[in-house]
Amino acid sequence: MKEIVRVASGQGFWGDLLTAPIDQVRGGPIDYLMLDYLAEVTMSIMQKQRARDPRTGYARDFVSLMREILPDCVEKNIKVLSNAGGVNVSGCAEALKETAVDLGLSGKVKIGVITGDDILGRLDEFHGKGVNVVNMETGEPLSEVRDRVQSANVYLGAQPLVEALNGGAQIVVGGRLTDTGLTLAPLAYEFAWSFDDWDKIAAGTIAGHIIECGAQASGGNCQYEWQSIPDLANVGFPIVEASPNGEFVVTKHIDTGGRVNIQSVKEQLLYEMGDPKSYITPDVVADFSSIHLADAGTDRVRVYGIKGTPKTDFYKVSIAYSSGWKAVGTLVYSYPDAFAKAKAADQILRARLERLGLKFDVVLTEFVGVNATHAHLAGEPAADIPEVQLRVGVRGQSKSDVERFTKELAPLILTGPPSVTGFAGGRPKVEEIMAYFPALIPKHLIETKVEIIQA
Q1: Which residue, 162, 159, 128, is CA-closest to 142?
Q2: Helix (H, G, I), strand (E, B) or coil at 218
Q3: Beta 171-174 vs 110-115: how paired, if at all?
Q4: What would the pLDDT profile of 199-209 be if each residue is shown by its tens digit?
């Protein structure tokens, strides 16, 4: 058994810094690279991609990345875990296999493929069995939106990842694997933790929570003394150095920018936390109030004392459904009387939309530079400010009404207040709205499959 296992974060979301995972692999010693690509809305985006082209539906950026770093990973025996498979895990795995072959690594790479999280095709089956699927936040039954559902994915935990690692996988890819499970799994595998050793499983879960958002734990998006954080252009992503007893140190590669200290770790710990005593994952219920932090040197924070309690009998399900259409447009008004001009333009626009008989669920106006961030709390500006961006968004069930809204902004240039600019981008884009429907489903209904593919 290793005394220390290093798990590095290389991706906090789909679209994160492209160089980060490369720097993690080449910048110093690590054993595992975890890459988190999925957010709640991402699944529905991927589902639409696959509907247009069955070969898509996964994060193709991941395959491009692996083409860059796979030779390094093979040479250094670095294992990679990711949820980049989206709604087409098998397609992603096949692309990874082709990449390994193209790189001359045939016979040297095993790919673990985890499926079973995508339950879109089983929703009617569950309904027929009397499974009551309701919105966790509103109590609304799924039947109210069933005909508009675009994606439905269970949040799977670390156990199938461990199974894939036990099967010899160097790359493990799945769909809606939890962010925390991507870090917990390597620790449970390397240290042979039992999945009912709740304190250790909670420790691995919290380690995953700390690094799941990438550089947000190492100086990025940090509120405390952010001006003094060094060299964010070269920010180092966080690394967990874990021990068999469940304690770990959060750090980053030397000679990288950013900062790892107690404050940066605290800020990340608060991310998406509800009840601090009951942070529920598929693997454990972690007690955030039990966490102890200690300064362990420059860019090193020791985390210890973590407690956990047994997991629940349910998986959380992320369901996305179509909920109308939206469009957002902007105009910029300049000094003098910039704010007054923007307010007048908003009133004119609203009057015209009403006269046209257009129906919207919401018409939202923000005055960027005045109150877009703090809304009514910002109050009136103390002086005439040099410029204000009028930003108007509409949401409604009628696509044609939303499309008509996009045609009413440009006329304001010559038929509204003076000194307008900022419309060079053309008419706003009409976009379909994806609404979020979180629910619970009994774990015994979910069938997870782990397959090992030899490249």
Answers
A1: 128
A2: coil
A3: parallel
A4: 999 999 999 99
